[in-house]
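INFO batch 0412 | record 1 of 1 | parsing
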Amino acid sequence: MKKALLEATDLCKTYSNESVQQHVIKNLNLKIYEGDFTVIMGNSGSGKSTLLYSLSGMDRPTLGQIRYGDEDISGYSNNKLAVFRRNHCGFVFQQNYLNDTMSALDNVMVSGLLINKNRKELAARAKELLTQVEITEQDWKKFPSQLSGGQQQRVAVVRGVINKPEILFADEPTGALNSQNTKNVLDILTNLNNEGQTIVMVTHSTTAAERGNRVLYLADGIVKSEIDLSGTEGEQRHRKLKDFLSEMGW
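INFO prediction complete | emitting tokens
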């Protein structure tokens, strides 16, 4: 039986603007299981990114509880949430947010040093990971502006996993990439998941969604339905997801 790493119970997120309230997440219940590649889909405004940020401790729910193992992180202070994210989570976003004044290697290293103070050990891991995602030694010292968009995003993925996070959160990680670079990044995420990395990814892309083994469909702030793609591949997987999304009104 799969272990639940994260569990959201009666989760609500409301944004208030003067007299207007927008209920983005509404009494949502969800478990994220160890080793799963969970994909969150839904139309614009359905609450996908808000849910991702709430689950990861980057945003606070208005009501409800988020448990990580035996801990209720929804009541953590800002400082304690920052420590939680640093120790347990990795992040990849649509924009890579690399530091323009640092090399590719240093962008990865500076994130890793938050946990691992052994620079030699950390550098070895960073170089190994960069090599795995086909960022070669000749590019390690290049600044982000000297790399292609696809290379930048691959560096961002390495930065996200340098600390061996228990959960990797990805928000539209291929949204700004062309088709070939999209495939490259998705291949990396798939390989990480095959090695046991738990991933939660928000996407509008059916191509990206097919990489997950579990797809949730959000509508009006709740999980309308979900589908298990485990055990399928190729055209069967594509068709199963397409039929599911069609049922959801995608």
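INFO post-check: The two ends are 32 Å apart (CA to CA).
INFO record closed
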